[in-house]
Design goal:
- By secondary structure, the chain is α/β, with parallel strands linked by helices.
- The protein has 3 domains: 121 residues, Rossmann fold; 111 residues, Serine Threonine Protein Phosphatase 5, Tetratricopeptide repeat; 166 residues, DNA Cyclobutane Dipyrimidine Photolyase, subunit A, domain 3.
- 46% of the residues lie in helices and 6% in strands.
- It contains 18 helices and 5 strands.
- Strand 1, helix 1 and strand 2 form a beta-alpha-beta unit.
- The longest helix has 22 residues.
- The relative contact order is 0.11.
């Protein structure tokens, strides 16, 4: 028998998946569909993600009729499964994240000792990290020239349908996917390849044309919600870009630009893997920060007394997702109003977001903190009240997530403390924004 292994990671789909084509060609007598639960990525510290992943894997197993799920060190488990199946090759989409790249290199070395090849085909990106460079071969740290180079580089069209695949269970058993409890109060978003395609087609039909005008408005909820599907690979950006290409709207252009931002941050992390948890601009290591304590806990709980901030943090707990504009607002509040280092907020997001993508999350936080690539200048400090009035003018978003303010009129919804009788049960602001803005600038001047 000629067999192969398809090792799924961030590509839990059948459509537009060129690695599956290679796996089938290399294993005409059987392909083992493998997923390894790696403790580096499957643990108690990321309960939202593990709850989502366990259900996603079950959905995928039901779809293909079998999924070989093992738990352990990928270096040991991938080799064991490949040898057990008599496979001559293991097929993957390339991983460019720091840990993933190191893991794959170790697996490749271990497989080679048994004359088994690790074959990389494609990646989670339209243009793989490292492909878009300046004339001197180095990567970009500013988005706009990267975006221009990304468009010029181009990308392949979606891979064709794969057809029938002889999925193989090497030990003849169906492996039970571990259950993971859903955190209290959390509603997981729809999952799986079918849900991704359905949501995408709905967005194309109803919302993409106006995306440039509506993307910053959290109240109407007219964003695509594709981030979680891109995170787990239940849809590929090639598919999205192919559908956007014939459209001639500002919204379609703006959406393609957001896809490019995702690829820019992946490219930056590929260039500078140390920036995953350290400062891209190391000068900010010298900034004076406050120790995390009660203020951090109030921020996490959505009880800061700042309505749009609290709405965002409660949305995070309720959906495992936050509207992108609100992500920037809550991040700025933590770093520049509470003076807490960005890593504390980034870690909290990684734990609670169902779409927690390391590159986008970490570098999005560094953009707000002023320490990243193409960074927002540190002195550009978001005023959460002004942001709320501009992007949630009627208070629709705040009322949805902060029921204590449900009866507050639009004039006062973002500053309820200005009412003669503030609403009962909602806290007063834990800080004065104007005062903390001055303090942030003082701390910034000290490191300039």
């Amino acid at each position: 028998m000629t067999t192969s292994v398809m090792w799924f990671r961030r590509d839990v789909r059948l459509g537009d998946n060129p690695a599956i084509h290679d796996a089938r060609d290399a294993g005409p007598d059987g392909v083992v569909p493998l997923f390894v639960l790696d403790d580096r990525l499957w643990g108690s510290g990321a309960s939202t993600r593990t709850a989502y992943l366990s259900r996603l894997l079950q959905d995928f197993a039901d779809r293909i009729g079998s999924l070989h799920v093992v738990h352990g060190d990928p270096v040991e488990e991938v080799v064991r499964v490949a040898r057990q199946a008599g496979a001559s090759s293991v097929h993957i989409a390339a991983d460019f994240a720091p840990y993933g790249a190191r893991r794959d290199a170790r697996v490749e070395t271990a497989l080679a000792k048994h004359d088994i090849a690790l074959v990389r085909t494609g990646s989670p990106y339209a243009v793989a990290p490292g492909r878009v460079t300046k004339d001197d071969g180095t990567g970009y740290r500013v988005f706009t020239p990267f975006f221009n180079g990304w468009k010029e580089h181009g990308w392949r069209g979606p891979a064709p349908e794969v057809g029938d695949i002889p999925w193989l269970r090497p030990d003849g058993r169906t492996h039970r996917i571990p259950a993971a409890a859903i955190p209290h109060g959390l509603t997981l978003p729809p999952l799986g390849e079918d849900a991704a395609l359905e949501r995408w087609q709905s967005f194309l039909a109803d919302d993409v044309a106006d995306y440039a005008e509506t993307r910053d408005l959290p109240g109407p909820d007219r964003t695509s919600r594709m981030s979680v599907h891109l995170k787990w690979g239940t849809i590929h950006p090639r598919t999205l870009l192919a559908d956007l290409a014939p459209l001639r709207s500002r919204g379609a252009e703006a959406y393609a630009r957001e896809l490019a931002f995702r690829e820019f941050y992946a490219d930056v992390l590929h260039q500078r893997p140390d920036s995953a948890f350290g400062y891209y601009n190391t000068a900010f290591e010298q900034m004076e920060y406050d120790e995390p304590g009660e203020a951090l806990e109030a921020w996490k709980a959505g009880s800061t007394g700042i309505p749009v901030v609290d709405a965002g943090m409660r949305q995070l707990m309720g959906e495992g997702w936050i509207h992108n504009r609100v992500r920037m607002i809550v991040a700025s509040f933590l770093v520049k109003d509470l003076h807490i280092e960005w890593q504390h907020g980034a870690r909290h997001f990684l734990d609670l977001l169902v779409d927690a993508d390391l590159a986008s999350n970490q570098h999005g936080w560094q953009w707000v903190a002023g320490s990243g690539t193409d960074a927002s200048p540190y002195f550009r400090i978001f005023n959460p009240m002004t942001q709320g009035k501009k992007f949630d003018p009627d208070g629709q978003y705040v009322r949805r997530w902060v029921p204590e303010l449900a009866d507050v009129d639009a004039k006062h919804i973002h500053e309820p403390w200005t009412l003669e009788q503030p609403p009962a049960g909602y806290p007063a602001p834990i800080v004065d924004h104007a005062e903390e803005r001055r303090e942030s600038l003082r701390r910034y001047d000290a490191i300039k």
